[in-house]
Amino acid sequence: MSYYADDPTGFNQAMGSMNLNGAAHNAVMPTQQGNDEPNPFGSGPPQTQPNFATEPPNPYGQPESHYLPQTQAYQYQPQTNNPPQHHHAVAVAPPTQSTPALQFNAPPSQGLNQFESFPQSTGSHGDPFAQPGGFQPEFEQPPTQPQWMHWFQLADQNEDQKISGQEAVNFLKYSSLPQSMLSKIWTLSDQYKRGCLGPDEFRICLGLVGLAQNGLEISVQNLQSMSQPPQPRFAPAVEDLAATKGQRRNRPQPPVIAPAGKQSRRSAREQSERGRQVEYTMRMESVTNIVDGLKHMYSSKVKPIEEATGFHIFHSPLLTDSEFEAKPCVLLLGQYSVGKTTFIKYLLGREYPTAQIGPEPTTDRFVAVCHSHEEGITPGNTLVVQKDKPFTGLSKFGTAFLNKFAASELPADLLEHITLIDTPGVLSGEKQRIERQYDFPSIVEWFAERSDLILLLFDPHKLDISDEFKRAINSVRGNDDKVRVVLNKADGVDTQQLMRVYGALMWSLSRVVRTPEVLRVYIGNFSDREYECKDNADLLDKERGNLLQDILDIPRRSVARKINEFVKRVRAAKIHAYLVHHLREKVPTFGKDKAQAKEAARMEEVFKEVSNKYALPPGDFPSVSRFRDKLSDVKIYNYKRVDIKQIQALDNLLSEELPALLQRCGNPFDSGPGGDGRSGKPAHQGFM
Q1: What is the structure's pLDDT at 351?
Q2: CA–CA separation, 188 vs 212, rounded Å?
């Protein structure tokens, strides 16, 4: 009897073995690890865990029962007054046991292209979704590809391994579901709000379609609870999509500006600008996800202004495509021996290559802990010349820093979605800052701008904030929403002492972090050893669960963070362009250096003049002293003149084009007056 006699499409078998928790904030942490664990990479009896270096992990997840411990564990549930729809339990190891690794079974983060190809067969009969240790069917011939994969290939018309909103509309219309249901299905499937679905997310989408067609509750929790979820059904005409697969839409080409006989330079320039605008509009119409749209906006509208006005000299280096596509990042800062490297070991379940842990200052360099199928170390000088890595901007800090920077690569589930940055322990005293031979606060600022979460680690015996630590904390200003404080090793004090330590920590922070908002402080012991003092075990367990939840939520918030950072950069570039434009107008033909020095001396007044002239908010201007220092190193009159209309176009970018991109890559099934599932506006409106 055929294995798929009762399931001819193979969909139930695929969905039954898949972990449908899906969301980035769902993870399962084992409390035991042995050689008799079920194989998470395919079917077959329990066996030893494969070598990650030669056999890549299965990105399709496994049932939670594989990772749940056989001994005690407590379940962490997010506190909410509403019925849980998107949150799931986080199983956290009890403090008395070793915690080997944080298993992260979420879809890939935005822009990483983790699913460029589907995984190969891992079971003995070629079924990559067979249950571990389950029944082994016998085939006369290997089965064909799962039905869900066939549907994915039909929907993926442009063969980019992603289902855009328009592709989803074209495919899901054959499900005969009403638009309101398809809108909810898209919202639940597009968990990272990227505006597209990867293979894992598409499988969840298919499962939700099956629930809706059978009149069941449309939720990921309901889908996960079913061992045999109902199969989705599509009209036979869906196969017609194969005829148009891979074909590009016929678009008009941008006009070619032929040289005219006696046209003026102004006329030729206007025609050239019009042609570039038409080409820009066409490219924006072809964008299928938010990150690609941000990259194109930056390279076409923002980067030319930054290059012309020297923004990369005064502020931050020019952005690269790899920085837009980078995984979310967590930056760890703290004095020596507060447990930064141990914290990373706790998250990964093992030490990363070159990690050193001890009571003395051990980590003497910046280390980017990244994912790879093989362990390895990449020196900093090599990292900054690799265009596919988001570290090229660090080259401006010179060889002295690059010799103290490296990437440590290893196979770990968490690192498939998040990059961790370990930093040197901060020491006290002015001498240590001089001996570093590089600008420590400036490098911290560079990483902080590109991080999704910044953890400031303390322990009960190191609550003082040294001069260098104070400068490092000040360098992350402007990123206050990312900062979290971790009071590590809190199990070393009893309840009364912990209360006093917490008060002393808040007092120390109040003298450095001068904001009306209170920083979020997590209390715990983030290591694999037992608690020394068990008086506060319940509190420390809950705090640890909350921090892990915060970390696991990062990929889901990654796209929103990229949008936020893009808007901040565009505003900063606009103000910088206005300042340079204003200063160039003040520099005469003769005596340029003297005139520039005069303007630099009255920089506070210059800021006010520019703010009043162009109606710019004073809070968006950079530090006066920092801008003056940078200005002394350049000749402002050497910068190219920028058309004021080009600077004003940045306002249109934020007010019209960016909202149009978000709308274009939003829920394609939202109803609107246009009747096409969107707002009724033409797809290109807002890009002109």
Answers
A1: 87
A2: 13
Query: Which residues are CB-neighbours of 376 under 8 A, at least 6 positions away?
Result: 353, 409
Strand pairing category for 329-334 and 453-458: parallel
Residue 329 burial (CB count, 10 A)? 22
Helices and strands, number each (H, E), in the chain: 26, 12
In 3D space, the residue among 158, 172, 196 whose CA is nearest the CA of residue 661 turns out to be 196
Contact 123, 44 (CB under 8 A): yes
The candidate with the shortest Cα–Cα distance to 521, out of 543, 493, 553, 496, is 543
pLDDT over threshold 70, residue 205? yes
Do the Cβ atoms of 583 and 653 come closer than 8 Å? no
Torsion of CA 136, 142, 148, 151, to 10 degrees: -170
Rounded (10°) CA dihedral 2, 209, 556, 153:
60
Specify the pLDDT at position 366.
Answer: 93
Please write the tens of the pLDDT for every residue from 420-430: 999 988 866 55
The sign of the CA dihedral 371, 329, 483, 470 is positive
Q: Is 668 helix (H, G, I), strand (E, B) or coil?
A: coil
CB-CB contact of 145 with 160 (8 Å) = no
Helix (H) or strand (E) holding 303: helix 303-309
Calpha distance 586→17 (Å, rounded) = 69
The number of beta carbons lying within 10 Å of the beta carbon of residue 388 is 10
Which is it for strands 90-92 and 163-164: parallel, antiparallel or unpaired? unpaired
DSSP labels for 589-622? SS-HHHHHHHHHHTHHHHHHHHHHHHT--GGGS-
Q: pLDDT of 95-131, one tens digit each?
A: 444 444 454 444 433 333 333 333 333 333 333 333 4
Reduce the DSSP state of residue 330 to 3 states and report it: strand
- Tokens describing residue 466: 């040294």
Tokens found for residue 616? 């710019």
- DSSP letter string over 2-50? -TTSS-TTSHHHHHHTS-TT-STT--B--S---TT---TTSSBS--PPP
Q: What are the angstrom distances between the C-alpha of 396 and each of 323, 382, 385, 400, 438?
A: 16, 14, 12, 11, 11
Contact assessment for residue 409 and residue 435, using Cβ atoms and an 8 Å cutoff: no
Q: Which amino acid is at 451?
A: S
Mean pLDDT of 25-43: 40
Q: Which of 193-207, 432-446, 524-538, 672-686 has the lowest mean pLDDT?
A: 672-686
Radius of gyration of the chain (CA): 28
Distances (CA, A) of 248 to 155, 157, 252, 287: 14, 9, 12, 13
Beta strands 419-422; 405-410: pairing state = unpaired
| 514 class by beta-carbon count within 10 Å (0-12 exposed, 13-18 middle, 19+ buried) | exposed
Q: Which residues pair with 366 in a beta bridge?
A: 405
Q: 221 CB contacts (<8 Å, ≥6 apart)? A: 84, 85, 88
Are 339 and 357 contacting, i.e. CB atoms less than 8 angstroms apart? no
CB 665 within 8 A of CB 293: yes
pTM: 0.66
Q: Quick one: which of 649, 638, 630 has its CA closest to 578? A: 649
Question: Which amino acid is residue 675, in one-letter code?
Answer: G
